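Handout, page 2. Input:
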Amino acid sequence: MRNWGRRVARFLGLALLGWVGLSVLLVLMLRVVPLGGSMVMFERKVEAWRAGESLDIRQEWRPWDALSPQAKLAVIAAEDQRFPVHHGFDLVELRRAVTASLNGGDLRGASTLSQQTAKNLFLWTDRSWVRKGLEAWFTLLIEMLWPKERILEVYLNIAEWDDGVFGLEAASRHYFGVSASQLSVVQASRLAAILPNPRGWSASRPGDHVLRRSAWIRRQMHNLGGPAYLDRL
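Output:
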């Protein structure tokens, strides 16, 4: 019985080491490879298939220099203003979220761009503890193995912006008929504004909430110092 237990423990230990090694190699490879898909894209295709519907995924990879600086800054201003300085987890926002919840407010998200990139690229969208644990692991890996520019580049190329619309290039053409390099400040702020609910809100036909949120994002972009803030990456 003891020998059987040791064999099981040895097998589990080797399996864990193998999984860790493979995940590290995968993240290292994706540091330089243009990405044409993500697990969230796959999840949306499966959801459509289960519903008996057809879903065309629109996504075109664009390198860092072909992505609008205004869009890069707008996403940081909207989603993660401490992105250049944290190591994957924004402890300041996390403490604020927990404090607000303890004081009777809703438990709001404190997810960083690094966490969102890890989730969108490698995982699925539900809120289980298993997914959260894997998200933390992949967040640590990309923070250790990728520069900040690469994290933001990947995020902007795989983020969901509407049903079947992924990445900044597809979103820019879908909503405004321009490429990802040509976005204006207003257009970039509206795209960033709909990220919390991309399948429910529209950047080209914004409601009052999106208009207010995009105006707030533009103020934050100004407060951060404009596109020069990106030099901190």
